[in-house]
Amino acid sequence: MVSRFRSIAAAIVPILVLTACSPTASPSASSAPASTGPTSAPPSAPAASASQAAAASPGTKFKGVNINILTFNGPQVAEPLQRRAPDWEQLTGGHVNVVAVGFQTIYDKALLDASTGTNSFDGYVFDPQWMGDFVGPGYLLDLTDREKNDPQLNQQDIVPFFRDYNSVYNGKNYTVPLDGDFHMVYYRSDLLTKDGLKPPATWDDYLSIAQKYNGQDLNGDGQPDYGSCIAKKKGAQSYWWIISLAAGLLQSKGTSQGAFFDTTNMNPLFGQNEAMTLALQTYAKTATYGPPDELNMDVGGSRGLFTTGRCALTMDWGDIGTLAPGTFAQDKTGATITPGWKQVLDRSTGKLVACDATSCPDAVDGVNYAPFGSFGGWSGAVNAKSPKAQQDAAYDFLSYMSSPAISGIDVTLGKTGFNPYRTSQFTNTAPWLAAGLSQAATDNYLGAIKTSLDNKNFVLDLRIPQTKQYEQDVLDTAIAQYLAKELDEAGTEAAIADGWNSITDQAGKDKQLAAYVASLGIKQ
Amino acid sequence: MASSNSPTDELSREPGLTGPAPPRTAARRATATLGAWRSEGAARWLFIWPAVLLILALSLFPLVASVALSVSKLVFNPGRVDLSFVGAANYQQLLFGLERSHFLGVLRTPTPLGWAILIGTVALTATAWIRVLRSGRVRPLGLVFRLVGGLLFIGLMGLLVQTLASDGGRPGSVVVTLIFVFGGIALQLFLGLGLAMLAVQQVPWRRFFRILFLVPLTITPVGVGYMFLMMTDTSKGPFEPVWVALGLRNFTWVTDPWLARGAVIIGDTWQWTPFVFIVLLAALESLDQEVREAALVDGASRWQSFRHITMPALLPVTTTIVLIRIIEGFKIIDMPNILLGGGPGTATQSMTLQAYIDWNTLNLGRSAAVAYLLLILVSVVATVYVSFVRRRVTELA
After folding, report:
1. What digits encode the pLDDT tens for the residues A342-386?
2. For residue range A446-486, what is the model confidence (pLDDT) as tens digits?
3. CATH code for B172-396?
4. Residue A502's closest chain B neighbor by CA?
5. Based on the number of CB atoms within 10 Å of its own CB, is A489 exposed (0-12), middle (13-18) or buried (19 or more)?
6. In angstroms, what separates the C-alpha of A328 from chain B's closest C-alpha?
7. What residue segments make up the domains of chain B, in order of their start?
8. B71, B74, B75, B76: best to mutate for the A interface, most A CBs within 10 A
9. For the complex shown, is ipTM > 0.90?
């Protein structure tokens, strides 16, 4: 017994000694400038007024001010915030704690923190889609004047969609854009060039290209590969793809027309109509040219397959462009605007009609494109109930992160998860070349982004109260059931429409309609 | 209340003290009685009520609060969160409304086999009721509980039959949970018993294997989920060469509902078999070997020895293991969520996962309603199970 005790003690003592001597045992704040743990502001933190801050010399602007910023633990998104935090602290004298949590947790944590009056976070870097839930009860600070008069932010450099729509709710700016998120289609440029094919302009083109390359060896490893890779896992981020696919059939008259509900009566467009039926059928067909486990593949899986050369086509946010350098897909990746349709939904009849000058005024060569700003891009917001000093510091940190000099570098790095959203990021190609993209790849990638953002028919993601229930619960479940053949087209459309109507009725139809109209920037 | 047995009474009955008690003694007796009452009352307040209040605070309050939540919806207002009363709307949605197909499943007319199972269930339950009634040993309240429990059991079997043994039926999260619970427990019991029988033998590396068999139990369920996510990925990931070598490059676990459920059960079994193993190992080691050896000397085969000596001796502990695993198994969420996100479709969506999805979209009312229905289901299944096995265990004992 004694010998056993001795042997256990002999094993434990060195572990304790090593633990005590390890660097993490030191509580020194200076050794962990970008702590991921929440710490409250010191009670003695001086409340620096805006005028004091403005008059302060560099390095003391926010001296003693401690701010907590809640965001996604990625590791993308949190990475640039944590990496840049020490630089901002050096410049201003403030201290920022980046509190990084899982994607599914940000919304609940932020909303409950604000609604219960806990207010432990001074700022959020989150999904602008959630503004509907945050702006109504007054949880977010109105940033309109700050953004307009902030030379560091340089608001005019931000692309109009992100400046005038994505960061705006009911005519006021509530978020600082840090990321430009929307879907594009990526293709293997080497294969299409070799075979004399053009990038897919319509979803029919997409299917025919996917069919052509499916089952062929695309990366020279002797194994058959896939025509199309689209992440379709339930409970991940997959519900956004069907919106991209259906958008060109549902919206044709500009962003303010909206693609989710009829703006006159709040009837779901994702319901029983020919447009949805065609979109669902096309979406299911893409799965026939994909990997066998595509139904359980998240976006990490589809990116991995594309960058290792195993897919001819994929749909993604802007990330593929910055992930390709250094992989098999380097200089073999092309990007193009999300394919469109030559038909569009007649909302009064529920039938599809051919595109013409009246039904699709912005169509290009008869194709109605509707690039989808899914998610909308990570954006910073400031807690309306934080002390003024913390609000000032939180805004300044977000503005610093978004400033052209900082964001111009970060959007070129795949590890940040940030994509371009400023004019200067398209005109200055030097950071892109420095990040490893060739001139041709840079031109192609930025060209596709610019084409998408310049499109007047850009689709804004849903941003009304209970958005999460509409998309992540009802839509995600119905689409997963359709892909698993639990529901047919009619059953899926009914499940989405009934589910959305139920949420709308519970929340109040008039209230939801007003919020939807406000989110589209329509003046009432 | 303590006067009849008080020390003063005992004194008054002693020899030589048989006369009537003087007034002073009566006063003392009254004071002592009051003191005893006071000290007992104080002790009750001091020692019992804090514990009772703590239990109430930790157990009953959340239960009552979640009942309130299940009949409400959350409304966010500036500076506060309000609960708006919606009555039974959340329960109505789950049992009869929009969420019925996700919660109960798609119910269709049973096949002939389904009808046979259902009729058999009704007959067995009715026989059990009649037996209880004839025994005359059960109180009226017990009879009511048994009647309600039996009806719920028949309803549950009806649900199983209409979703699994029917044309066009589809299980909802209730039935999926039952599949995970009973499929997993059957496998875990079989493997755990086998491993325990192996580890109790005097074999080389015995201690090493005992520790090795326990390792899965020490890993966090989320970690196990990600590990099985990698292992079951046939198109990429570390096991891809293995799948390719086996000619299963295009095989997938995730498009067929039963294969997906099988993957979840395998992962859950890998994690929880060690629990069954360690408890059964302890039980096996505590058995009296002399009885077994005597049986072998008397000519019993190893199977007869296992069947008639070891198994009955293990039954009480096995009953407890199964009960614990039933209660624990109903809460399964990590494996189906991480491995498949509840898919394909809703094929692996357990009740807890459904509650989690609702909670995650801040539909807290419906999430609480799912949780309450889960509580009722666990209670019914556990009660029926205990009633079913208790008599047999008692008879064997």
Report:
1. 999 999 999 999 999 999 999 999 999 999 999 889 999 999 999
2. 999 999 998 999 999 998 988 989 999 999 999 999 999 99
3. 1.10.3720.10
4. B98
5. middle
6. 16
7. 109-169, 172-396
8. B76
9. no
